[in-house]
Amino acid sequence: MKRPSSLPLSLLVVALLGAGCASTPAARKYVPVDTGNAFLWEVKDPRGGTAYLVGSIHMGKAGALTLPSSMESAFTKAHVLAVEVDTTRTDEAAMQKLVRELGTFPEGQSLSQRLDPSTRDLLSRAATRLGVQPQGLERLRPWLAGIVLNNLEFKAAGYEQGHGVDRAFLDRAHAAHKQVLELETAEAQFRMLSGTPDNLQDLMLRDQLRREQGPGEIVEALTSAWKAGDADGMAGLLLEGAKDTTYRPVYERVFFERNVQMASRLEALLTEPRVHLVVVGAGHVVGPEGIVALLQKKGHTVRQLPRETPID
């Protein structure tokens, strides 16, 4: 097996972006509610600024995620594309070096020494299922071990970042020479995870490993919710674990704290005369602590747009 810390950076970054997919969705069978809407919102500032907000699924299979007409129109109308991280323009060598610095233990320390027994047991089962030698993970800190295992599992099931929604927009934006802004950076995301206290890193890993669904079932459910424009369903799939007080801090770290920061960035973009298309993970958009709700509380008019109605 390839050393985990040597996996291509693009795969590490997209696994990080897809951290929501690693969270434990609701165990019940998801049945999408077709709203007739796209996973797209129009955001209007009282002073006249306009932006469009897309909830993205970061991984997919070829042809599984077709952009509806309203998203195509929003892209055409936008002057600037804003994403969490531009995965097409990352300095791979510099980030690989950073990942090794932030994500590995010094000599004499190991992953199994730092984990709660229940997390250690779940990790052993996951490694066996994926054909990974447990000793190959021992030098990795919990946050990086989770990213590596998540990536290996989704890749094995045939899901790739190149077929995600945000990557589709990035490729189009670069081809059209449209400006691309990053709301975050890969370095900031890695530093956020590496700066997470050890006990919370353990909880993050345990929350990921305790899920009952396989990656295919998870992504298919997320894809169904995305196609149906089912924001409530998506929130249930991705954020159900936040109701558990034990795991609530994981969701605060991965989703809710970052939602506040991204909503503030979007507010700043609304003060500009240009139209922005903002594409972030679907888990950041939905729910009572998602970006849509945060913007509405700030007095902005936010409405979800129909799938097949082009934007004027």
Walk me through what this model shows:
The N terminus is likely disordered. Helix 1 packs across helix 7 and helix 4 runs parallel beside helix 9. This protein has 15 helices and six strands. It is of the alpha/beta class and 312 residues long. 50% of the residues lie in helices and 11% in strands.
List descriptors.
alpha/beta; six-stranded mixed sheet; 6 strands; globular; single chain; 312 residues; disordered N terminus
Brief overview:
By secondary structure, the protein is α/β, with parallel strands linked by helices. It contains 15 helices and 6 strands.
The largest sheet is: 6 strands, mixed
Mean pLDDT score, rounded? 88
Strand content: 5-15%
Give the CA-CA distance, first to last residue. 52 Å
Alpha-beta classification: alpha/beta
User: How much is the radius of gyration in Å?
Assistant: 19 Å
The largest beta-sheet arranges its strands as: 4-3-5-2-1-6
Helix content: 40-55%
The dominant shape is: globular
Number of helices: 15
Low-confidence stretches: 1-15, 18-23
Give helix and strand order, one letter per element, not per position: HHEEHEHHHHHEHHHHHEHHE
Quick one: how many beta strands?
6
